[in-house]
Amino acid sequence: MEEELVLSQTEDQVLTLTLNRPKVMNSFNFAMLHALKAAVDKARFDPEVRVIIITGAGDRAFCAGADLKERATLTPVQVKEFIYTIRNLFTDIENLPKPVIAAVNGIALGGGTELALGCDIRLAAETAAMGLTETTLAIIPGAGGTQRLPRLIGKGKAKELIFTGKRVDAQEALDLGMVNKVVPGDSLLDAAKEMAAAIRKNGPIAVTQAKYAINQGMETDLSTGLAIESNAYWITIPTKDRLEGLAAFREKRKPVYKGE
């Protein structure tokens, strides 16, 4: 029986997607790209999924980027297809109407770091290492790395890391702002689930609109960003969840949000 390339598990409205090619450090071939895309597309419209966690199988690697053995067999046109597919997939992940947490459990190089950058929040194991190492292979980051990394850590530092192909350990990644938090490897998934639970208990429509306002507003000027925020807020006003939040506060109980 063929092994699943992306494992899916849903618990308490949190979907955990695990890249499952540990023998090759969870590197992306075409098949795993398509498997992850299928899982992401399914989660997008699943009302039972409020938060997504993406991690890698095993304790060595989150994702080592593209499968270079497969890459060596591809024609130039096929390489273009691969880059087009992976770039659009990571953009789809970034634009999901649900928060996505990357649990970086080990090596995350090239496309592995780019996958993490496409997520909303990044938690890293103490043993993690990250880097956009493509220039060491005479190519450049092609799945959003040249755009998302400077937006996250600044242009100058991003240029340094990309031009040199330098790898950074978990602590340096935290210092640079590439990750939100570093935890011991054996508690990484628990930490990700704890953060997911803290998000899941809040109003899902509000969380979706907050993500939209931040993502879209950061790409424009302040005045336009404030207008985006205003419109996102208006969407929350007629919801049943907003009334439930007020009722729960008045009745001194925890709210039960249904995404309505």
UniProtKB/TrEMBL annotation:
Molecular-function GO terms, alphabetical: hydro-lyase activity
BP-aspect Gene Ontology terms: fatty acid beta-oxidation
Keywords, comma-separated and alphabetical: Lyase
Lineage top rank: taxon: Bacteria
Membrane spanning residue stretches: none
UniProt cross-references to Gene3D superfamilies, sorted A to Z: 2-enoyl-CoA Hydratase, Chain A, domain 1, Lyase 2-enoyl-coa Hydratase, Chain A, domain 2
PANTHER family: ENOYL-COA HYDRATASE, MITOCHONDRIAL (PTHR11941:SF54), ENOYL-COA HYDRATASE-RELATED (PTHR11941)
Family assignment from sequence similarity: Belongs to the enoyl-CoA hydratase/isomerase family.
Protein name: Short chain enoyl-CoA hydratase
Organism: Desulfatibacillum alkenivorans DSM 16219
Lineage start: Bacteria, Pseudomonadati, Thermodesulfobacteriota, Desulfobacteria, Desulfobacterales
